[in-house]
């Protein structure tokens, strides 16, 4: 078949695409998530051609794309209040809503189910094409079934040139992973596929939202999938992909010990890697990772990678969508090279880190309180005191010890002073920290928390495989510090203003514990503990 190449930036070409679609043809179109292979959603015969072109199993239903909210009503049995709310918050955008379907939706589009998935994309070219076609468009991702989804026009050409009527070039896709799919068709709203709209965003609108088990776990044999797409091999490059669940340091050591492999890593890993690598963003930026993941997988194919070790993404925020795709690319293969797992525990003063640490210890974890190490007498040995005296004045020495307040006063006056203090004390604090980690390990602890307010500043995030942030509203933190340390409100406020706020920590964390009281903490901690112990899907 001769495939027409059209430009999404040319209005005549958009009209042409609309015409082809109206008369029963297939056109690949750009959307803000990934490219889609579109056809008239209301014509079963036409929709069947999508399955053929993609080599897609016919029981895997398609998403119907609309360009105005009013187009939803005729496609479904009813529009519940929850759907209205979601639409108001996230449409147009990367969210697909599943509802009971109306008679208008043919079997082929819904894959034989009595529900239909509907999405109102935000991409101006996608909307223009739907409008030009004058019908809702069924559009799965525009890749051959099983391969990574296309986020660049070149990917679409590679998979579909010669197999469909036209390809519409709209440049690169912004989000990079497919839409979030949520079902409102029965019971509690449930996310079947994570995407650009996050679970916590959905919860902020709907309250309770479940996440389907198949999002992060392999579907158990004999169990049917809520979303048929979950059961098929997916997003697979030619290479054999293995996810490495490890701290940045462990990851680099593990990968460097391997031969004939490629690393699919974060920007932070690149400097120390000795094998060829492709980076898919920075460690704490799920949105960037989503944007780059599929093109990175495509690129690894292009350069002929055989074996790929991927650094595990965080499952928080958009990261959950990244993890969901990557774990399928990897066929659920995860390697955990470390013998013990170090977990960073961060958050501003008064958020409740010690309470959280205590709760983890009750569950059998080890913990090292790095803050108390900064005051430990073991750190301030004779040699240390001499160095401090040389830097900050002999008069800091008082009978066998030192005047801590005086050192603090002199050191914290200038940045240079802080640097010198750090240079003297940091290596000693770290030495004590590693001693305590080893002690915890010797006593059989497999998961060890590093309770360290300055984890990032000290570069200790590089040894942590996960990071937990504890957050609490500023008023609560202020009153806690006042009660704990017997200081005034002004003093407490001053101390807090010298520190990073909640967001600094939560934006760099794999898990966020919102401190809303003891019961909720216990709950949150036991959930995280389960995750830290690792999935069953390990190598
Ligand atoms: O971002 C996206 O959603 C892209 C762009 C092109 O819009 N489309 C896309 O479609 O990813 P596709 O076909 O690759 O993925 C649709 C997913 C599949 O996992 C399918 O099983 C699920 O949505 N799905 C569709 N209709 C469903 C239904 N009625 N019930 C449960 N799952 C459904
Ligand atoms: Mg797909």
How would you describe the overall organization of this protein?
- It is built from 19 helices and 23 strands.
- It has 3 domains: 4-215, DHBP synthase; 240-335, Rossmann fold (3-Layer(aba) Sandwich), CATH 3.40.50; 339-365 and 445-539, Rossmann fold, CATH 3.40.50.300.
- It is elongated.
- By secondary structure, it is α/β, with parallel strands linked by helices.
- Bound molecules: threonylcarbamoyladenylate and magnesium ion (MG).
- Residues 140-141, 149 line the site of magnesium ion.
| Overall pLDDT score | 94
Q: What proportion strand?
A: 15-25%
Poorly predicted runs of 5 or more residues: none
- What overall geometry do the principal axes of the alpha carbons give? elongated
Radius of gyration: 27 Å
List all distinct small molecules, including ions and cofactors, that are bound in this structure.
threonylcarbamoyladenylate, magnesium ion
Under CATH at level 1, the class of the largest domain stands as: Alpha Beta
Number of helices: 19
Write the CATH architecture name of the largest domain: Alpha-Beta Complex
Number of domains: 3
Main sheet: strand order: 1-8-2-3-7-4-6-5-9-10-11
Largest sheet: 11 strands, mixed
Instruction: State the separation between the terminal residues, measured CA to CA.
Output: 44 Å
CATH topology (fold) name of the largest domain: DHBP synthase
Find the count of extended strands (DSSP E, 2+ residues): 23
What's the assembly state of these chains?
single chain
Helix/strand structural class = alpha/beta
Q: Helical content, roughly?
A: 25-40%
CATH superfamily of the largest domain: DHBP synthase
């Amino acid at each position: 078949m001769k495939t027409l190449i059209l430009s999404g930036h040319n209005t005549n070409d958009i009209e042409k695409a609309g015409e082809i679609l109206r008369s029963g043809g297939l056109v690949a179109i750009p959307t803000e998530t990934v490219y889609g292979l579109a056809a008239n959603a209301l014509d079963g015969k036409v929709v069947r051609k999508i399955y053929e072109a993609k080599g897609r199993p016919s029981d895997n239903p398609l998403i119907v794309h609309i360009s105005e909210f009013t187009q939803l009503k005729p496609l479904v049995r009813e529009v519940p209040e929850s759907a209205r709310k979601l639409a108001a918050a996230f449409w147009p955008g990367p969210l697909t809503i599943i509802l009971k379907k109306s008679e208008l939706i043919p079997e082929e589009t819904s894959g034989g189910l009595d529900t239909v998935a509907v999405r109102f994309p935000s991409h101006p070219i996608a909307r223009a094409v739907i409008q030009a076609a004058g019908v809702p468009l069924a559009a799965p991702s525009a890749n051959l079934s099983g391969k990574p989804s296309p986020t660049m026009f070149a990917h679409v050409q590679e998979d579909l040139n010669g197999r469909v009527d036209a390809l519409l070039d709209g440049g690169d896709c912004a989000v990079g992973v497919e839409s979030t799919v949520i079902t409102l068709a029965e019971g509690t709203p449930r996310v079947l596929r994570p995407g650009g709209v996050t679970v916590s965003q959905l919860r902020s609108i709907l309250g309770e939202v479940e996440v389907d088990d198949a999002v992060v776990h392999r579907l158990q044999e004999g169990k049917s999938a809520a979303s048929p797409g979950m059961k098929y091999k997916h997003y697979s490059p030619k290479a054999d992909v293995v996810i490495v669940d490890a701290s940045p340091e462990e990851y680099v050591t593990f990968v460097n010990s391997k031969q004939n492999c490629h690393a699919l890593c974060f920007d932070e890993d690149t400097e120390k890697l000795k094998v060829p690598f492709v980076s898919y963003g920075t460690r704490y930026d799920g949105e960037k990772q989503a944007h780059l993941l599929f093109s990175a997988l495509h690129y690894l194919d292009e350069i002929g990678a055989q074996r790929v070790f991927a650094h595990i993404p965080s499952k928080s925020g958009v990261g959950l969508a990244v993890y969901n795709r990557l774990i399928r690319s990897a066929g659920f293969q995860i390697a955990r090279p470390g013998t013990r797992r170090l977990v960073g525990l961060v958050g501003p003063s008064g958020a409740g880190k010690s309470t959280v640490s205590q709760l983890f210890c009750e569950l059998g974890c080890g913990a090292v309180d790095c803050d108390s190490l900064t005051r430990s007498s073991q750190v301030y040995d004779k040699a240390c005191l001499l160095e401090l005296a040389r830097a900050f004045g002999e008069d800091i020495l008082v009978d066998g010890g030192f005047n801590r307040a005086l050192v603090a006063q002199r050191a914290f006056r200038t940045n240079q002073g802080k640097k010198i203090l750090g240079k003297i004390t940091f290596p000693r604090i770290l030495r004590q920290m590693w001693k305590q980690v080893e002690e915890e390990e010797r006593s059989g602890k497999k998961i060890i928390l590093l309770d360290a307010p300055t984890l990032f500043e000290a570069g200790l995030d590089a040894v942590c495989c996960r990071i937990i942030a504890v957050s609490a509203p500023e008023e609560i933190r202020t009153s806690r510090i006042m009660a704990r340390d017997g200081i005034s409100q002004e003093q407490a406020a001053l101390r807090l203003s010298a520190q990073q706020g909640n967001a600094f920590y939560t934006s760099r964390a794999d898990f966020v514990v919102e401190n809303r009281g003891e019961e909720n903490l216990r709950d949150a901690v036991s959930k995280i503990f389960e995750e830290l112990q690792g999935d069953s899907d390990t190598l």
